[in-house]
Structure formats: structure tokens, C-alpha cells
Amino acid sequence: MKTxxxxxxxxxxxxxxxxxxxxxxxxxxxxxxxxxxxxxAQVVKMSVWKKYRVHFLAxxxxxxxxxxxxxxxxxxxxxxxAQVFDKTSVEMAETTIETEDAFDEMADYVMVDKEDMYxxxxxx
Amino acid sequence: MEPQGKPESQRKAxxxxxxxxxxxxxxxxxxxxxDHEDANDVLQNTFLKAWKKLPEFxxxxxxxxxxxxxxxxxxxxxxxxxxxxxxxxxxxxxxVANRLMxxxxxxxxxxxxxLYEAIATLPGVQRTVFxxxxxxxxxxxxxxxxxETSEGALKASYHIAVQKISExxxxxx
Lengths: 124, 173
Description:
The complex is a heterodimer of chains A (124) and B (173).
Chain A: H1 2-11, H2 23-33, H3 48-51, H4 53-110, H5 114-122
Chain B: H1 7-33, H2 36-53, H3 63-86, H4 90-102, H5 110-120, H6 124-135, H7 140-147, H8 151-172
């Protein structure tokens, strides 16, 4: 930059400032002597809740997941039992129908009434 | 050097930081505030603030960068307060050169006094950018970390500062 070069030519970069004699020899100790004893960081006592808040929240999350899972499994088991019950009822109904069909076939084969056959089986 | 551990060791570490950086920081402050007594006060405030803010220093920048940032802010705060107190007018700009020439702790010639008078007309941050680049020959990347400004903005600021100073000096001559 030409303007910058012009400034350097005109004024240079020499430091024109001075300090009192022995200023820097004692400066550091003067500064240190005026520092307060401790930095301003203060230890604040936190309540148990504040201190362990994250842990409490994590435990609550885990418990709610377990609880929800427990409910879900319980519902699923009940649904399964209901399905099994329904299946058994259908099977029983189907079995009954098959038994009656068998009776009908037998009755036709021996040329005996179904009622007579039932009566014979029951011992009447 | 990053102070860690017990308060006692932290204090000892900070005392070493004071011994290591006091002179370096003094000159950076002096070029902004110009007067020796003012620079001494600002330097004291800088280390006091650094001591109070020490727990916040996480080592994500160099210690020198962190300290320099505090020093610049303290210097500019000082100038703002002084400006309010003195109600600076255009006449006051001329008195900067006269004040320097009368100052027992100023060893420069009339031309250098005029240069500092011209620099004193710049806004605080622009003044600081000029000092860092022109006198300290700092890289823009270093200045960027201290002032937390982009390198592009710094280059523009420096360019404008040089133009203003050149025009001011030409006018006064």
C-alpha cells in the first residue's frame, strides 16, 4: 500500500514513549500486591436436587420406559390368551359339527335313524 | 501457561503470568492511551480483570491473546470515559500533539506527535487495528483472534485508517 509506505517514510515506527526510571523493575510486584487474595470464582453450595438433577431425570426416564414396557407386555399377553380362547371355541364348534356329520353318515350307512342311534349309545 | 489446581497454585501461576506479560501489555496500552499514568492505571485494571476472569479461561486461545483482548477493551473503555469527561472537540485533537510535546515521557519529534494526534482522531477499534498492524506488525490472523473480527473487516479498517491519517497529516502540514 503506497500510502502506508509514505507514512513509514515520513514517520517511521520508532517508539517515542518513555517510562520513569526502574518502572518495569518494580511493575510486576506492584500489580501482584494489589490483586485480591482469591479470584472471584465462588463455590456455590447446590441443593441435592440441583446437584443430582441429571441423575434423577435419567432414573425417571428408565423407570417410565420399564413401566411402559411392562404395560405393553401385559396387554399383549391378554390379547394372546383371548386369541387362544377364540381359537379353541372355533375348534370345538368345528369338532362338534364334524361329529354330527359322522353320525349322519353312519346313520345313512346302517339305515338307522339318528335318534335311534343316539338312544342306543346313551343306553336307553 | 494455564493456571490449574488449588487456589494457592493458581495464584502463583497468575503471578508468573503478570511477570511474563506486564511490559508487553504496557506498551500496547500506552500506544492507545498515550499518557504514562493512564497506561499504568489501565494496565493494573487489565490484570485485575484477568485475575477475576481467570476461572473463565478455558485455554481455547493463547494466554497472550486472552490478555491482549482484555487490555484492548480496558483501554477503549478508558478512552470512552475520558472523552465523556473532557467533552472532546476539534480543538482537543490539536492539543494531543501539544500535550505530547510537553510530556516528559514523550521522546519523539513534532512529526511523531502529529502522527499520534492523527491516530487519536480514529474511532477506538480502528485506532487499535492501526497500532497493531503499523507499529507491532502483527498478522491479520493474530489481530482477528484478539479483536474477534474477520480478517477482511480488519484489512478494510486498516486501509481506511491509513487513508484518514495521511489526509489529516497532509492537512496539518
